[in-house]
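= Protein in question =
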Amino acid sequence: MGTRPLPLRSDGYGRAGRTPRALDPRRFTLPDTARPLSGTGFAAVVEAAPADVLERSTWAPGCPVAVADLAYVRLAFWGFDDRRHTGELLVNASVADDLVSVFRALYRERFPFEELRITRPDELDARPTGDGNVTGAFVCRPTTGSTSTFSQHAYGLAIDLDPFQNPYVKGDLVLPELASSYADRGRLRPGMITPDSVVVREFARVGWTWGGSWRSLKDYQHFSQNGR
């Protein structure tokens, strides 16, 4: 995965094809990249963002959030392999505790994730392969489809969960590009977020809004504090 760039559309996104049979249903869990947490149940550690974490993130001068306002979170999550894993998030410090409480509930319900990790700088300009599935929060980038407006991810105030199982859909554009099968929300598979799911319920509890409820487009992976 992640090694075969797609031909590009005129808008710069990848030209989508059918979802490969090996990815439908998609039930991988990748090796953990974060330092493991001890114990056997849910656990989380919240701290100021360390310098080495920032260096491998997309933060740079000009990003709309200060380093002092970011928190580094390591937390346990349930994988598609039915095992406990440790992941990492970079988030706005003001919402770190709320997000930990949400992930605690998702762990209890065994909602599965493929990987939780911080987006690297090289991923911002990489050619699309259409099969990405990183659950992550902070990314210093514009809103999808814009070149001038910062995304809520750039403030650490939004998070995307299992993007392949929960794609962004606007007209004929599906992101990730090979996740077209998952644009069909009537055929439920593991990792999919539905309006009545524990995921939507728990984010609503802390005041966050789901992109799957938007009208002009559907961003099934996306949750944000301000609804954008």
Summary: The longest strand covers residues 70-79. Residues 170 and 216 are 8 Å apart (CA to CA). The chain has a mean pLDDT of 95. The chain is about 10% helix and 20% strand.
